[in-house]
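Question (not urgent): is this output format expected?
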Amino acid sequence: MKIAFMENEFWYGICVKFGLQMPIGPETELELDFRQNPTPNQAMPLLVSTKGRYLWSETGFRFKAAKGILEVEDTCELGETGGHLREAYLAAMQKHFPFHKMPAKELFQMPIYNSWIELTFDQNEKDIMNYAENILKHGMPSGVLMIDDGWSECYGDWRFHSGKFPEPEKMLEKLHEMGFKVMVWVCPYITADSVAYREAEREGILIRTEDGNPYIAKWWNGYSAVLDLSNPKAEEWLHRQLKNLCAIGVDGFKFDAGDSIYYREDNVTYRKITPDEQSQKWAAFGEKYPFNEFRVTFRAGGKALLQRLCDKEHSWGETGIASLIPDTLLQGITGHPFGCPDMVGGGEYLNFQNMEHSGLDEELFVRHCEIACLMPAIQFSAAPFRVLTKENFKAIQKSLSVREKYLPYIMKQLEESSCSGEPVIRYMAYEFPEEDLEQVTDQFMLGSRYLVAPVYEKGKTGRGVWIPKGKWIYQEEELISEGEKKYYESEPGVPLIFERIKK
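Got this back:
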């Protein structure tokens, strides 16, 4: 199917990881193959246009933009609303991925603290308690504590490691008394040659190869057998284990590693499904638990899932902080409003190893928090009170104060989104379709009321902000814009915020 661009038409969608490549316009030269999600982030077979059109497919698809023509698979559905970006998105969403509920409210009401960067694979009871105690000691609020990979006996045997966690029930009880909710990391993999592996093979719930042997996937932690989530017995087997954890006080789970790329087309499964569909099954499984987090999904728009951006580097460039706003905007327009802009400072843990040699950029850490503070969820991993000077830690506390001020509005938007499906973090073109703001992707609207413009470039003390026509309030003073870009100074940790005054 070949579709000619309309005059000044721009398209957004497909995959969250490509936020910086959006929008796709009449002059764009781009070709991408999404027949299987090749990225570590959310993918939706959806493109939406500023001229009220959308493209939808039940499966991933290839597309090519060149010389004013958008070429896609003939299996794609072209919808036309006669409106703008908002109308295109709402029409596609209502037809193909309607919303019904939201994840646990505490995921957004409270900061999330992930133990990964502090402890990596050495997750243990003593250090988890020290991490939680230091959070409170340094004046940060209690929140949702995620105990990351390394807490269990092995993959597939989802019990606390008896050597690392001698008294898990008491630990969980204490953390609850301190005001924390507790989540633990899980994955769809099973350590080969473990007791869990033998049980899963006996139950017939593993993916197999064409010769009948268990399929051993190569993923970032080595080689593991894989649960066949097309088999209801596999779901039941995993649910039993997770319910046992909930019974001793675990509140929910970080569902990691459901990447399409770790499955194969020739996998032999209970029901014949594709790698993308296995990833989709993993998301559907996790949605049953209100306290959840996902980093990668396929066609999970509309689901009640906290969806984090993939691990970002501790850098100012396209693989780091520069991508946070563009990727989050793309999350919203593809049906993932319950988002988290990675861990503050970046989630790539290797960046935080041997800092005396690699160097922590404290300015970047502060500006990342400045961006995250008005996003749906905010997540820490590297402890800011450990890695920052007192002055820069105060900037983090300022960001948290900003979040506290606007949290009632954020929660209202999230609750509305759970029914309406509308993005919480919105493109400027979504709210102002007549003002030629289609390519402005480094600032955002929080709902329809607040324009937010954080600083994201090294060494900058301010930035230019596109302010649409109309009345606004900035720092308690009214301003009238004719639709122009103006420069404003920015305090570290505090984003520029403009309140829209509607007629």
